[in-house]
Amino acid sequence: MYYLKSMIEHRIRRPDWNELYNAAFLNADDGILQFDLTNGAGSKLIMKISGVVDNRFRVIIEEPDLHRYRIQFCLEKEPETNELTVDYLGDDALIASDGNGNRLYVSFQPISIEFYHDDILESVFDGSRLIMQNTEESQAFTFTVKFNEAKRLIGLHEHPNTVSLMHTADYKVDPYRLKNVDYGIFGYSINVTQSMYGSIPVLYGFGEHTSGIFVHNGAEMWVKIDTDEMSAYFMVDAGLLDLFVLMGPTLSETVRQYTDLTGKPHLPQLWALGHHQSRWAYNNTEDVKDIIGKFDEYRFPMDVLWLDIEYTADRKWFTWSTTSFPDPIALLDWVEEQGHRKLVPISESNIKVYPEYTIYDDCLRNDYFINNANGTPFVSVCWAGDVSWIDFLNPEARKYYAQLHLYENFPSTSTLGGYWNDMNEPALFDNTYERTIPSEAVQYGNVKHRDVHNMYGLHQVMTTHQGLMNRDEGNLRPFLLSRSIFAGSQRYTAKWNGDTVCTFEYLRILVPMTISSNLA
């Protein structure tokens, strides 16, 4: 498979001497440093380094003649820049500062960037592992970052492992992988570096002086961790090399610098902090009333009941089964009367291929689905049978999907607690492409799915959140739960840990997973 071949190639490969990039300073227009990067193989890159307010830098590297995809919707707002001043320029190096105790030292041959805070060297962008492919088959790139003051490396959520990242540089275990995938009903393994449902490409070098990096890129990544030299070697499948350097110098400050970029959660509803009950599945009105009655009978607390796919009409979203749930308004009112309890239904991003299903017909007619390379909608199998997936890069598709949540478009939802966006890695049953949409599928604007794969869940919850805000005219905070996440998802949704196994080993691993989640 492509991902395995590519990862192995980049993991063991080091640039030849003629592939090492040397830098030439061009200018510092508007306080942004710009360099030409060239090597003996004839490759040319443009590198821009800018200061970002609140002790941060941003490094962007790309080809001058290739416009790599720049992701959207991850950052809460465009970061405010902080002008850099060139303090020294020589034949082999440049020194610049931001006037706030942050300084960078750029070595030209080969390219290397050292980042200092209050004269302490915190991190280094090591250009000796900088590779940028630009072929029809691959636009992957690699780079290394070292954390000079770190005692341990943490981050790269989501992995079922310890908070401190393990050493993967000796080839005994795979590098940490960031690609949103689903492992099906058998769940995921634990104490491994395999990918999971979510990917947050932020990494912290924790120590007496803590710093971090955030890779602003939505493609698949592999990250080789070397705990001997406290470094991380990133192998990124596609997209732009866009790197935020977080100067700390404490862990709390470094995390705050990251969340200032990607946003913070809103205050959760009080009932959302209560006791939740879920199973697959509650098949009808009687099931719902029976389970709530049993909880009351045995005096066991319950605030929220979750509805899986069986509440729908033939597994079509934004419908109720008229046979199993003939009067959803009466049911929802009854649940509310039982101590202000809430129902939260599942709602996925795939749409059942079913002519005369209005949502499918609308999306097909308006080209709202993710497409194959030949322009036809991508179709695969999920719980509803043959399905296609909403393309949330399309602004009209986002508007359409958001308005499906209005009361007039999804009747009987007046007292729903919120929504559970599941299977949004996106996940499917065919294992040809690791149970997800193939990388070569095409989204709005002729964007390859590989450029934005890890962001699909973010795009869905962002749209669902907007739909609920519109539905309630901005008067209520929406409650959302998502299985798939990316940097920025926290602005819209809570996260669950997916399909765990009911053992103490899995319960134990949820503790470090939750800690890592709260650093992301």
From TrEMBL:
Family annotation (InterPro entries): Gal_mutarotase_sf_dom, GH, Glyco_hydro_31_N_dom, Glyco_hydro_31_TIM
Keywords (A to Z) from UniProt: Endoplasmic reticulum, Glycoprotein, Glycosidase, Hydrolase, Signal
UniProt keyword Signal present: yes
Residue span, Glycoside hydrolase family 31 N-terminal domain: 47-223
GO molecular function, one term: alpha-glucosidase activity
A single BP term in Gene Ontology: carbohydrate metabolic process
Gene Ontology terms: cellular component: endoplasmic reticulum
Superkingdom per UniProt: Eukaryota
Pathways involved: Glycan metabolism; N-glycan metabolism
Main localization of the protein described in the UniProt heading: endoplasmic reticulum
Family classification: Belongs to the glycosyl hydrolase 31 family.
Record-given protein name: Glucosidase II subunit alpha
Species lineage: Eukaryota, Metazoa, Ecdysozoa, Arthropoda, Hexapoda
